[in-house]
């Protein structure tokens, strides 16, 4: 039996290992960088089935129990784990319903002018004809400004968030991790308090009201919900934008096609999601009972990592899977997950990405990688994102 180690070299380039596993051991044992023993699911069909299988649980308490048995992983603080992504039905339905309406395609479309304004403001601040880190200057601040505006979080607090959240999702030192986590929790507690005293027109105020008006949401669930929305809202879309730009830089013919026909944008965004999936492996579950996936019987109380990054490069599903082809057509990929936990923020992420790529391509006639700089991926098992994206921009004529 294989015992694959998901180490630092794997993080820099996971695709060769994924390809081998899909061929030789599509459901196999693996050990993460933090020493956790897991089952890794790598084929598209298996991944899709696993994501929708209720025997693979996301229940916070069950996950905690299993992780304690397996050891070798940092478990998030009790106060921030009881959110929809860590729950099974019926809690999941109740929690998701509380914010579901705010994220429908129609409600999100109404945010377009606001997002366009934020994007334009950021691009106005970039000095063209210079070398910049596109992550810091644009890909990061765009989604965080949008999600903070939605939730009602002051602009001044964004940088503190970036640092806490980065520490939590990467393989940081234990003390650093604890510090980031307690900093973030203390901040959120104080923010909820402030919204309770001075409610605004924002989503956080609405959630506090939902909490206080009835028994739909406990105080802990409220805190966890805000944590989830913030982290999900800004650790992911930043990577969709930056990974997409990098993919275009590495496929100049596709960049030229997109420039020539911006009508391809929606389909190109889906292809960026497939090609370099921002959430590479975060989709983990625990088996509530023995579950057969493909040819393999996984016992109860095991951790199962469903690799979206691998599923989306499965040659049985996609022709030429390692090529970026911006007009493959819409949908089908698993970058937003599948089943009841399908990404709540998908319409928002798509809209932000469309605006971002349209603005970048129309403002800058040329985008090139800055020469002589080595690109590195963040040391994370959860997210696939660059440490920085140094580029040279040339304004459009
Ligand atoms: C769930 C990916 C942006 C909020 C998920 C899941 C994936 C995902 C894969 C399912 C995880 C699982 O089943 O284990 C992404 C990607 C994004 C993105 C690739 C950007 C490109 C956002 C944004 C928000 C958001 C902008 C909004 C705040 C959520 C929430 C869930 C979720 C709340 C949990 C849904 C549930 O449990 O029912 N996302 N996400 N995401 N996402 Fe996103």
TrEMBL record:
InterPro entries: Cyt_P450, Cyt_P450_B, Cyt_P450_CS, Cyt_P450_sf. Gene3D superfamilies: Cytochrome P450. SUPFAM superfamilies: Cytochrome P450. The keyword Heme applies. The keyword Iron applies. Keywords: Heme, Iron, Metal-binding, Monooxygenase, Oxidoreductase. It holds the Pfam family p450. Belongs to the cytochrome P450 family. This is Cytochrome P450. The lineage of its organism: Bacteria, Bacillati, Actinomycetota, Actinomycetes, Pseudonocardiales.
């Amino acid at each position: 039996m294989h015992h694959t180690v998901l180490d630092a070299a794997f993080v820099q380039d996971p695709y060769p290992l994924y390809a081998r596993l899909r061929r030789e051991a599509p459901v196999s044992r693996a050990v993460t960088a933090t020493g956790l023993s897991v089952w890794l699911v790598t084929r598209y069909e298996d991944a899709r089935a696993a994501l929708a299988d209720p025997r693979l649980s996301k229940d916070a308490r069950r996950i905690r129990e299993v992780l304690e048995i397996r050891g070798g992983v940092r478990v998030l603080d009790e106060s921030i784990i009881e959110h929809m992504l860590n729950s099974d039905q019926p809690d999941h339905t109740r929690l998701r319903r509380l914010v579901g309406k705010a994220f429908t395609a129609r409600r999100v479309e109404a945010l377009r002018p606001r997002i366009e304004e934020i994007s334009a403001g950021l691009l106005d601040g970039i000095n063209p004809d210079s070398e910049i880190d596109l992550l810091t200057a644009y890909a990061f601040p765009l989604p965080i400004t949008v999600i903070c505006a939605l939730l009602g979080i002051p602009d001044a607090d964004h940088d503190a968030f970036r640092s806490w959240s980065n520490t939590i999702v990467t393989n940081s030192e234990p003390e650093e991790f604890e510090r980031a986590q307690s900093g973030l929790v203390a901040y959120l507690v104080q923010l909820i308090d402030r919204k309770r005293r001075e409610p605004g027109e924002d989503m956080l105020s609405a959630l506090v009201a939902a909490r206080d008006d009835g028994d739909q949401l406990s105080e802990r669930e409220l805190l966890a919900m805000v944590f989830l929305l913030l982290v999900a809202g800004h650790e992911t879309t930043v990577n969709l934008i930056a990974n997409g730009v990098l993919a275009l830089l590495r496929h100049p013919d596709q960049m030229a096609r997109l420039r020539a026909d911006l009508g391809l944008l929606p389909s190109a965004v889906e292809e960026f999601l497939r090609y370099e999936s921002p959430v590479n492996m975060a989709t983990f579950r625990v088996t509530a009972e023995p579950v057969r996936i493909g040819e393999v019987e996984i016992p109860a109380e095991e951790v199962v990592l469903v690799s979206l990054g691998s599923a989306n490069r499965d040659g049985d599903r996609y022709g030429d899977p390692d090529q970026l082809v911006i007009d493959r057509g819409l949908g089908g990929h698993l970058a937003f997950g599948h089943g009841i936990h399908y990404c709540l923020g998908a319409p928002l992420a798509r809209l932000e990405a469309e605006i971002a790529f349209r603005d970048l391509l129309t403002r800058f006639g040329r985008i090139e990688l800055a020469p002589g700089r080595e690109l590195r991926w963040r040391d994370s098992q959860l997210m696939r994102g660059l440490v920085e994206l140094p580029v040279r921009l040339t304004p459009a004529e």
